[in-house]
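Milestone M4 deliverable, item 7.
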Amino acid sequence: MSRILPADGIEFEFTVPVVVIGGGAAGMVAALAAHERGAGVLVLERDALPQGSTALSAGLIPAPGTRWQRDAGIEDSPERFAADIIAKAKGEPDPLEVARVAQVVGPALEWLADRYGLPFSVVDNFSYPGHSARRMHGLPSRSGAELIDRLRGAVETAGIDVLCEAHVTALHADGAQIRGVEITRPDSSVERVGCGALILACNGYGGNRALVERHVPELADALYFGHTGNQGDALLWGEALGAATRHLSGHQGHGSVAHPAGILVTWATITEGGVQVNAEGRRFSNEAQGYSEQAAVVLRQPDGIAWTVFDERIAAIARQFEDFRQAEAMGAVLSAGTPAELARLMKIDANALAATLADIDRLKAEGGTDGFGRDFAGSAPLVPPYRAVRVTGALFHTQGGLVVDDEARVLDGQGTPLSNLYAAGGAACGVSGSKASGYLSGNGLLTAVALGRIAGMAAASAVSEETSQ
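Output delivered:
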């Protein structure tokens, strides 16, 4: 249970200038940034190994105007990226916050590469829905597991303390001033650590079924594909301290999680010309709108199941992602030389699937738009051998959260910063608005990296100023 306790009369075992709650991408980036500014930093992680939702993601971070884009001949800019974010979310996000993260994220990736050796490259062989330029950056395996492993390695090499199996169960405060945290260990023992500044990097509330039912009822019974530790602690603490919140119904879903394997299947399977059919062998939506909003659409199909159908050409593109290679290794990706054979393996009506694929071939040949509004102009036909994956819709993480300013300080209802409290990543309100359809691919790691760096630098500067006074 997340609690706010008084700080009066509390003796802390020790005090650290900057405490970071959460060892995912946001927390690790914040720790590196604060340490680089000369602050003492302690990262508190509830698990035995820092991973968080980052490890479950594809590890892709959208960033404009990077050197990797320039090397690939990709023209892009923060302004163009910001416009894409605003357009996808129908104008809901705060334009100042959008501009801020769009400006910061590119330099942050180059900083992580130059200072800490993270070997980023740009995904230049397919586009994500809503992005007007190819700006997704990832590490060689294109996996979130590699991203968090390398960030954790950078933190360890920098000599930053990371305390694992340290579940923060309460904050100690004088009014809205955070004085320290209470940590509960696996053996139920309790420790108290004081701090000069506190950075909330413990994501949102996706793992808290009651909060999901309240704010995202359409996904209340969906598979949760995030980290179970995302219990909404930051949100609950912030609300108890009088913090402002925004877009709490905003979230990232995904309409292509292999079932029952539980492996993310890259949306390149759709954007490169694949389709989704239900158990009746028929298409049911414009799949190309975006994977986030597709989660609820898939869940409305019989048994909450769909099939993503594509071909070997698309599979070859998908194999750059570790998750897809794992799905193939587990046998989750079916392969067949004809639609009839594929339907037999899928255990669905062969005539219906054949008719669906024939209709897609016709639309692609004509460059037509279907009844759902999907434009197939310029899309390559599906050719044997065909591929199919049984998938379901899932909730990945929430996008609403605490409102922060341009230094990632948490604001109260009147827009005044809470003096020493910061938020980054899923703990802060993101840039996706209030709906799943507002999520632009990569928005989660965008605010993890951008706001993480902003929060770390700002918190270090604040405690330095406090010390010098």
